[in-house]
Write a structure and sequence with these properties.
Blueprint lengths: L15 E10 L9 E6 L5 E5 L5 E8 L1 E8 L6 E8 L4 E8 L10 E4 L10 E3 H4 L33 E5 L2 E3 L19 E6 L13 E8 L7 E11 L6 E2 L3 E15 L3 E15 L1 E3 L3 H15 L9 E17 L3 E17 L11 E17 L4 E17 L6 E4 L4 E3 L7 E18 L2 E17 L5 E6 L2 H6 L1 E8 L4 E19 L2 E13 L9 H7 L9 E13 L7 E11 L4 H9 L1 E12 L12 E7 L7 E12 L4 E20 L8 E3 L4 E2 L3 E4 L2 E4 L13 E23 L3 E14 L27 E2 L6 E10 L6 E10 L3 E2 L29 H7 L1 H4 L11 E2 L3 E14 L4 E14 L2 E3 L4 E3 L6 E3 L2 E3 L2 E3 L6 E4 L5 E9 L1
């Protein structure tokens, strides 16, 4: 028997649960042959059964969501239990107490379902997902309702690329699998009926990432026909001084058709949705004149009038989705789901958003198909087979005339974002087989998984140039620095992963459940496709494919739930164990492309052929894997204590401890073996510095150990991350009258994962070697957000039937950053133009004023700036909605919806991290081995460079349901 005494084989599917209940009269006597009807509150789907002589009833394989139960028995008043909550993989208990009927007219007693304490604060139904307005349309918008995840689904101090996304129990791949460019699939929220962050689940079938995953279930169909259409239009200026952006607009529309194929046997749902969203990119007003000057020079000097900054990101998409459910026999169900979204010609935000003005055109597609067969062979034995396929494509176009061009002194960019240009495509065939067996108080589960992933990456397009200029004036005379990449345009490879798992879920007492399990996963790495570079091996004895091609890891898991009181007012849930992430496919794309066939050519000085550069031979660039390379591995524990204060109010609090190891970090094996000298602060210089105006780089070749090679990146797995968090949540809901929710998370994340948000590999090269002072990189994480919270409410006005008001307020701490220099200043001449911290020199003019405004500067004066010592200002947002019912009945409803997004919109701006600017009027000074770099304090340090939200938006829409 399973938890709550239900045969567990009926309730342990990942995407479905069960409802078990008892029908009794007021004296406690069982009521047999009562008629119980279960109806889905979202879709209207209904099914009916009779209670046994003991009064017991059981609904098996119930899709996760909210339901109403109608209980009818001769001689008793009908009882409707509203808002019964069902969670995938669990059993919900319902006690129905019927009152005797008298001579009065038939009256239906209504009871609001009081769930026992313990539902996770990261679980959301379709009603929750649609309660508040939102500017995005994809499943990633779920994160706005939780205080422990961001818009890319990054959670617990790890990026979204390490968070698994599961649809109907099957993983769905990330279209851009990189910490700096993580993007969730673009499937619309309307395709889903429930979503949940798996913070306190240790089920061995969850296997995709090193951070808790997001599990979502697709929409199921009603037993009647239903059509829903909606549309909205948005417009409004996104201008907040000192940031400016153009006016924007958008259009959204969609429809869902659903119904039965065979009554009570099969049903379907199909839907379509299309949208155009324009997101203005607001950047500091001081860039306006510089951008105009750049455009003029590009036109007059180079004949390129299309060289302009990117100020508007437009996304056009069309999506279609569907689901088919077919029930046959006593305990078998076939379900099939599919969705596809096409993204067409969108101007995208740059990955490194502080490169103001950069962007790329985008073509994309996301798709998944999944099917499952769940069978119950007996009361003890069952199985579930799941088969899925998913594909994600992101094509970032590089238009002729929009070459990546960056202006160092002004922090302005033109043309394509150099970290995005290329193609990222992945498709995966996924197979799962799970056997279920119950024996006494134990429920056993065992099975296997296979994820056969194929990747196609065009990471380094042929003859791609990235130009750097000190300023627009330097651009006008053609004096700058160009890095040209010559090499293979695409690579294809496979990354299969296989796993086996076993689990025992035990009911050790009437109110205590314990889960013990383990899984073993094996990754097969495509090292046979790597071409070892003979010359590098001759010089160093190092092989580029020395990592093992196969490695397997064991991941033990534990989960428990204890309900101390019979009434279910208290719940204690916990989960712990090990979670293994697959190997990062982007690293293998780089490894295969950078096997020596890729060559780098660097030119410093004057040239007059922008945006082209004369093709030279160049020298090879290599990426190699350190021995022992493998995917990240997290050890974590989570605890949640829940207390139901009343039938309407539940309080939850808990915490998380996590340590992740085997994170990738880079060193440059071809950096000069010994420093060539130091700067005025003792910073080791690995080459000869060259200066053009406000730009400083290494003289090409002067910083190389072996002149015949450019950067040789070694991917080590000595990175780690530690995260501690405390969570509190309050959930209150009184029938359909009002809803209140509040969530807050306090957390700390430390790691040595330097530049983890970067998409450009060379930016993540460590700037300092570890010495007697320790490792400089061990500090506050790039993903550390100490405070996150939200308060949301919805009220249905009592005297204005059909009118409801909703609002959602969110806040969070600002992003941490390291005081440094402009992109394009290579302070230590190691070949990376982005990775150097500043020395906090109180002798530089203007430092005192800056230190008085920034504690992080004042407290660390006289030393190199600690990593992520400073933090941008906090961000807060308020979204509001008024919905007016035009007409409504059990079968139809119409609402006029008025939304105001970002009514309050503060923060969410990328700060200027450059503490110093290189003085363009003074030369470098050399005295022996010491080079003095002329510096001036940046008066705009910490000021906003670019805004990452669209500003205030207004929307009007119409929702119809028949």
């Amino acid at each position: 028997m399973g938890f709550w005494g239900v045969p567990a084989a009926h309730a342990q599917r990942l995407a479905e649960g069960a409802i078990r209940g008892w029908v009794r009269n007021e004296s406690g006597t069982a009521v047999g042959t009562a008629l119980i009807t279960l109806r889905d509150r979202l879709t209207g789907a209904g099914t009916t059964l009779e209670s046994a002589r003991s009064g017991e009833f059981l609904f098996r394989l119930v899709a996760a969501g909210e339901y109403d139960l109608m209980v009818e028995a001769f001689g008793h008043r009908p009882l409707r239990v509203e808002r019964v909550q069902v969670r995938g993989g669990e059993t919900t208990r319902v006690d129905a107490v019927l009152r005797a009927s008298g001579n009065e007219l038939t009256v239906v007693d209504v009871q609001y379902f009081t769930a026992p304490a313990g539902g996770t604060s990261g679980r959301f139904t379709a009603a929750d997902l649609g309660r508040y307005p939102w500017s995005g349309r994809s499943v990633g918008a779920v994160a706005r309702l939780t205080s422990n995840a961001d818009a890319t689904l990054g959670s617990e101090g790890l990026p979204g690329s390490m968070t698994g996304l599961y649809v109907n129990g099957l993983p769905v791949g990330n279209p851009i699998p990189h910490a700096g460019a993580a993007g969730t699939p673009s499937f619309p929220l309307t395709a889903f009926r429930q979503a949940e962050f798996l913070t306190t689940s240790a089920d061995v079938e969850w296997s995709l990432g090193a951070a808790p995953g997001l599990s979502a279930q697709t929409m199921t169909a009603p037993s009647r026909l239903e059509v829903r259409t909606f549309g909205d239009w948005t417009t409004g200026p996104a201008e907040t001084s000192p940031l400016r952006a153009p006016v924007h607009s958008g259009l959204q529309a969609g429809a869902i058709l659903s119904g039965p194929l065979i009554t009570d046997t099969s049903s379907f749902v199909i839907g379509v949705e299309t949208w155009r969203l324009e997101t203005p990119i607001a950047f500091a007003a001081r860039f306006d004149s510089i951008a105009a000057q750049v455009a003029t020079v590009a036109d007059e000097m180079y004949g390129r009038p299309d060289a302009s900054v990117n100020r508007l990101s437009r996304s056009d998409a069309f999506s279609a989705f569907g689901r088919l459910d077919w029930r046959f026999g006593e305990g078998s169900t076939v379900s099939a789901s599919a969705a596809i979204t096409s993204l067409s010609r969108a101007r995208s935000m740059p990955v490194l958003v502080d490169r103001v003005g950069a962007g790329s055109s985008l073509e994309g597609m996301d798709a998944f198909v999944s099917a499952s067969l769940a069978s119950r062979f007996s009361d003890r034995f069952g199985q579930e087979f799941r088969l899925g396929w998913d594909r994600g494509v992101r094509d970032f176009a590089e238009d002729d005339g929009r070459a990546s061009t960056l202006f160092v002194n002004d922090a302005l960019a033109v043309g394509a974002d150099p970290t995005l240009v290329g193609r990222y495509a992945t498709h995966t065939l996924r197979v799962r087989e799970t056997l279920h067996y119950s024996l006494g108080e134990h429920f056993f589960k065992a099975g296997f998984s296979a994820d056969l992933a194929s990747h196609d990456h065009a990471l380094i397009p042929q003859n791609r140039n990235v130009f750097w200029f000190s300023s627009a004036d330097a651009f006008a005379i053609g004096s700058g620095y160009v890095v040209q990449t010559i090499g293979p345009s695409s690579v294809s490879f496979k990354l299969p992963r296989y796993g086996v798992f076993v689990q025992d879920e035990m009911s050790l007492a009437s109110r205590f459940r314990l889960l013990l399990g383990a899984r073993w996963d094996m990754d097969v790495l495509p090292l046979d496709d790597v071409n070892p570079h003979v010359e590098w091996f001759r010089l160093t004895g190092m092989l580029s494919d020395s990592a093992p091609s196969r490695h397997g890891r064991l991941s033990p898991r534990l989960e428990f739930e204890w309900r101390p009181d019979v009434a279910g007012r208290w719940s204690v849930r916990g989960a712990g164990g090990v979670w293994d992430a697959p190997s990062d496919p982007l690293l293998f794309g780089e490894l295969l492309a950078n096997d020596g066939r890729t060559r780098m050519y660097r030119s410093y000085g004057a040239f007059a052929d922008w945006p082209n550069s004369s093709t030279q031979e160049g020298v090879p660039s290599l990426t190699i894997l350190a021995p022992g390379f493998q995917g990240a591995r997290s050890t974590r524990g989570a605890l949640q204590i829940s207390h139901r204060l009343s039938s309407a109010v539940e309080l939850q609090f808990g915490g998380v401890l996590r340590r992740t190891e085997k994170l990738p970090r880079r060193i440059d094996l071809n950096r000069a073996a010994e420093p060539a000298g130091t700067d005025q602060y003792g910073r080791e210089l690995y080459g000869s510095l060259a200066k053009q105006g406000a730009m400083i780089t290494a003289e090409p070749g002067s910083n190389r150990r072996f002149a015949g090679f450019d950067v040789v990146s070694s991917i080590n797995v000595d990175g780690w991350s530690e995260h501690q968090a405390f969570n509190v949540a309050l959930n209150a809901q009184v029938a359909s009258a009002w809803t209140l929710e509040a969530r807050y998370t306090f957390s700390r994340t430390r790691d040595n994962w330097f530049m983890a948000r970067e998409a450009a590999g060379t930016s993540a090269i460590l700037p300092f070697d570890a010495d007697e002072r320790g490792d400089w990189t061990e500090a506050t994480s790039d993903f550390d957000i100490p405070h996150r919270g939200l308060v949301g409410a919805e009220v249905r006005l009592p005297y204005l039937r059909g009118v409801r008001l909703a609002g959602l307020f969110r806040f969070q701490s600002g992003q941490p950053f390291t005081p440094g220099f402009r992109d394009g200043v290579d302070a230590n001449a190691d070949g990376s133009l982005r990775n150097d911290p500043a020395f906090l020199d109180s002798g530089v003019d203007g430092f005192g004023q800056l230190a008085s405004n920034w504690d992080c500067i004042r407290e660390n004066a006289g030393s190199f700036a600690p990593r992520n010592a400073c933090r941008a200002g906090s961000a807060s947002f308020l979204d509001a909605r008024i919905a007016i019912g035009l007409f409504g009945s059990d079968n139809s409803r119409a609402e006029l919806i008025l939304d105001a997004l970002n009514v309050i919109s503060r923060g969410a701006a990328v700060p200027d991290h450059a503490l110093y600017l290189v003085d363009a009027t003074r030369p470098l000074e050399h005295a022996g081995t010491v080079t003095t770099v002329p510096l001036v304090v940046n008066p705009n340090f910490g000021a906003p460079l670019v805004r990452t939200t669209p500003g205030r938006m207004f929307r009007i829409g119409l929702s119809l349901k028949y």
